[in-house]
Amino acid sequence: MGALYVRTGAPIKPIQFGAGQEHGLRPATENVPQMVGLGAAATLARKRLPAATEELRSLRDALHERLRAGFPA
Fold first, then answer.
1. How far is CA 58 from the centre of its chain?
2. 69 pLDDT higher than 90
3. What integer pLDDT is reported at residue 73 of this predicted model?
4. What average pLDDT does the segment 48-54 reach?
5. Has residue 62 got a pLDDT over 80?
6. What is the rounded CA–CA span in Å between residue 57 and residue 44?
7. What are phi and psi of 19, to 5 degrees?
8. Checking phi first, is residue 24 left (phi over 0); if not, alpha (psi -120 to 50) or beta?
9. Distance between terminal CA atoms of the chain?
């Protein structure tokens, strides 16, 4: 399951053909349970993003320090 935001006027063409879902870009029936799961995952990610951002920043900084220590200029 995934999502794709397409800006109005973007030159996008279908890669599968069949029924006319999503304005003719995608055939097949929508998988509603997976859509609900994607929405729930996005909600969780949004709530956790600030803490995850700080943790990743800290890990990045620690990596940079170790690299500087291991490869002096």
1. 22
2. yes
3. 73
4. 93
5. yes
6. 20
7. -65, 175
8. left
9. 46
Give the tokens for residue 14: 């279908």
- What's the Cα-to-Cα distance from 58 to each of 6, 38, 47, rounded to whole Å? 34, 28, 19
Residue recorded with tokens 């053909």: 17
* C-beta of residue 37 within 8 angstroms of C-beta of residue 1: yes
Q: Tokens representing 12?
A: 């996008």
- Per-residue pLDDT tens digits for 1-43: 778 888 898 888 877 777 766 667 777 778 899 999 999 999 9
Residue 2 is classified by DSSP as: -
Separate counts of helices (H) and strands (E) for the chain: 2, 0
Q: What are phi and psi of 29, to 5 degrees?
A: -80, 140
Q: What angle do CA 60, 65, 69 make, to 5 degrees?
A: 150
